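Discussion board: Methods & Data

I've been asked by a reviewer to show the raw model output for two of the constructs in my manuscript, not just the figures. I'm not sure how much to include, so I'm pasting the format here to get opinions. Each protein appears as its amino acid sequence followed by a line of discrete structure tokens. Is this the kind of thing reviewers expect to see in a supplement, or should I convert it first? Here is construct A:
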Amino acid sequence: MRASDRITLIDKIGRDLQSRFRYEEIDTFLAHYGIAKPREITSNSKWVYSKEALRNVDEETLLKIAEELDVAVPSLTKASSVLPRNWQGTTDLRIFISHISAHKDKATRLKTCLGPYGISGFVAHEDIIPTLEWQHEIERALYAMDAFIAIHTKGFSQSFWTQQEIGFAYGRGVKIISLKMGEDPTGFISKQQALARRDRSADQVAEEVDAILMADERTAMKLANAKSARGIVSLVDEIPF
């Protein structure tokens, strides 16, 4: 984040806190993010008080606070306000499929298999129109995604781009699924249990991905609504018990 954007964001958050809360409520809100009360503030302005408290807060925390308060992030507004081309007009749950170019066929196949479940995948090597700026389109997809799946094939951990995509998903707090296909997850997501491909087909993997998303509170409602909009009935609903 540029220095000027950081200053603007802190100003916006400060004004939002000023309009929403009393002093003690501001303290409680900031304490939730591990932010201490500012010291030696002589101004009686809640805006100034809040800005001083946020002055040295790290970027990731600032972005989380902005997301909770629904405060627009200056440098991100353009990218986050426009959906990528393949997600415009869809009510499906949106999942970003992270992969290396050498295995784009696997990503495309998984995307196809997820479709019948009301899950719309974004595969950079397939979904970006040649005339569009590819990096901006990827950024739009990362901001708009409801969930993220990483296909850990050989070489995935060495890709600068895939590691940035994982970091973006982790920072946003969306549901992340790791599909192990030759490599173990590394970094922040290594502590999470990976989904093993084993000898299963893409259809079988897609079925498990659907079950995982339906079981997670971050994605369950969106996916249920997507299925309802498309008239999709799960096998569980069809079988009486």
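Construct B, same format:
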Amino acid sequence: MRPQIRQDPAETLAHLQQIVQDLLHEARRQGATDAEASASSGTGLEINVRLGELETLEHTRDNGLSIQVYFGHRKGSASTTDLSAAAIRDTVAAACSIATHTQEEPCAGLPDAVHLAGEIPDLDLDHPWDLPVEEGVQLAITCESAARSLDHRIVNSEGANLSTHRNLHVYGNTRGFLAGYPSTRHGLSCALVAQEGDSMERDYWWTTSRVPAALERPEQVGRRAAERTLARLHSRRIPTGPAPVLFSAPVAAGLLRNLVAAISGASLYRKSSFLLDQLGSQLFPEFVYIYEEPHLPRALGSAPFDGEGVATRSKDLVREGVLRTYLLDSYAACRLGMTTTGNAGGVHNLRIQPNAGDRSELLRTMDRGLLVTELLGQGVNLVTGDYSRGAAGFWVEGGEIQYPVSEITIAGNLKEMFRQLVAVGDDCDFPGNVQTGSWLIEQMMIAGT
């Protein structure tokens, strides 16, 4: 990847900060007792190629502002993409009008000032990519060509996509908080179709980073997409019955997301979580350590403050297998009689510590069972924990992959699956806000033939 050219965002950030201040001032002028506002400005480039030709090219430039006002405990919200002074007045007026027609909500309001971020750390999230369009097109074509040329069984392509985005975001409220920062995100992906005889399969691979130079090389992305697609040819169904299941690392990240959803405030105060009243309970075996690190430099999930201006901080979600915290914004914390955890807007850089080696080692440990590399459908019931998903992957015997598998369903209950976690690998090889190696579950029910 070519070197990036840094751009000083100070002038744009100052402009957005002034807009947020104007929003807050206007809210006060129109009678709001409290208010919070945000403004953003983003630019981007999306390039899609297919079969060696440019298919679509899109330049984006997006602006937006939003305001949330409080009249005591009555709340109203409005937003617009127009940053003009007239739009500010009209947007605030719309939010105030909504607030006058809403019911009192005792927990509606801003976080206590003591929880707001004081110092804003520089997390090195801004790495603009000065990428000429012609070069971007060539990078995408190179990626797809590497995939298509790997094997004659790659018969078609859904194309390669290259993207680069930069966003500046500012948030402020009437408790004295006003801050913002720029961030970037770049990516490259490729999706393919392979065929041999009557068997036809599709798969993909991707890379993403805040830093252009940290992206995987286009040839590497293409080759990996092709290898994953080819490996799925001639898949078959397997007999119905119980067996150990190894979730490959990218798929295992979904299990962590299920945990996050179940311990997040909205699920808890609505009593729609299978982990209700489980704080301090043993959810996993003692080796399991799951934690959040919001201040990792350059990481995709890093943020100096959450969506309410509350300072983000490192914390343990699960330590020695025990659930140590929920994930709360200020509203959920109020409803639950607790304190905000700085998670308005979600989790930031979730990690699980491995206790085993790479996937090959986990396959040997499993000996016989199912390796899952893809999940289908939305069969997760967060109220009960019941888990039932369509799946594809590989059947394993003697610690070695024997053949690809498809058209099956795996079923269990998340509570039981968490308790039956045998090992977590150190084979995390994909980018994202949620990072984990492969998970080996002692036993699940597989529905096949």
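Answer (T.O., handling editor elsewhere):
This is acceptable in a supplement if you add a one-line summary per construct. For B, something like: The radius of gyration is 24 Å.
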